[in-house]
Amino acid sequence: MTTYKNIKGIEIKYLSADPPAPNAGQVWYNSTTKVVKGAINGTGAWASGGNLNTTRYPGAGNGIQTAALAISGGGPNTANVENYNGSSWTEIANVNTTRNNAAASGTTTAGLFYGGGAPGASAVTETWDGSSWTEVGDLNTARRYLGGGGTATAALAVSGSSGDEVESWNGSSWSEIAEVNTTRTTLASVGTTTAQLAFGGRLPTITGITELWNGTAWTEVNDMNQARGELGGAGITTSALAFGGSTQPTASAYNQTEQWNGTSWTELANLATARALGGASGASGLSSLYAGGTTDGGSTQVNATEEWTVTSFTTKTFDTD
Question: Which of 201, 216, 282 is nearest to 246 (CA)?
């Protein structure tokens, strides 16, 4: 018989009462009510973080809420890179090639920065080792406005100005893989090279289309509630956030936040500052960061940073039959 331990490698905790502050994904057996329970995504909110030293849009971001990078960008174009420690930003080594509308993945000690342009489309890829940037193998297809996700040694470059092409990075070179179903620019994409979620963007009109990558093919799943381009995204394929964005490059920005639970999108608390084209960071839909951006397509730029944190979780009872 298959058991929870066989599947997860751990045993379910045996408790006489539900824990007062469970973590999302935590599962336990309540011996009083004699049921298996777990904590699923619950209520969250945005809070102000430290301002960027250099205002930028559109910028790229990687890392997590307490350890993130804001990488290059425009308005005007800058090679500047800043490191966030959970409360403030510090300038560190610049990228070799200034770019905006690029993608980034990885962490503050092992990062990847790829694509974008200044002003034309670029195929340049740079790796970060915690102290300096090094140019490595170029993308096969130069592109701006692309989606990206993964790590410094395993990442995806998704759609963008080049069309529907998708490329996979193995730590030394890019390889073309299966194309997305719907070509779009200014989309968000999160996850890994075997489990990626791509959502929103422009066709050229804005869209809420969401596609799921399983390592072999892309499948269209449930759309976002608010169609938008130039949005921020963070998380994984079973727990992701979509935030900010705009209708058109010159239009007022959105402040809406939506959460993906692996099946559908749900609207949550709004950003304090409605904006698009900021740098997004976050390893899950429970803890994320959004820095910089523009409120009106470029004329008004902001250096604000906001942190998303889930403050409480919903308890679910599981059917054990």
Answer: 201
Mean pLDDT of 73-102: 97
Residues 293 and 220 in one domain: yes
The amino acid at residue 33 is: T
Coil, strand or helix: which one is 178?
Answer: coil
Measure the CA–CA gap between 245 and 247, rounded to whole angstroms. 7
Mean pLDDT to the nearest integer, 148-158 = 97
Give the span between the Cα atoms of 129 and 54, in whole angstroms.
Answer: 22
CATH of the domain at 124: 2.120.10.80
Predicted TM-score (pTM) of the model is 0.86
Contact in structure between 44 and 307 (CB atoms under 8 Å) = no
Range of the domain at 275: 44-310
Residue 203 gets which letter from DSSP? S
DSSP 3-state of 6 = helix
pLDDT digits (tens, 9 = 90+) for 31-42: 888 878 766 656
Q: Using alpha carbons, select from 169, 160, 182, 164 the residue that is nearest to residue 137.
A: 169
Q: Residue length, the chain?
A: 321
Asked whether the beta carbons of 180 and 200 are under 8 A apart, the reply is no
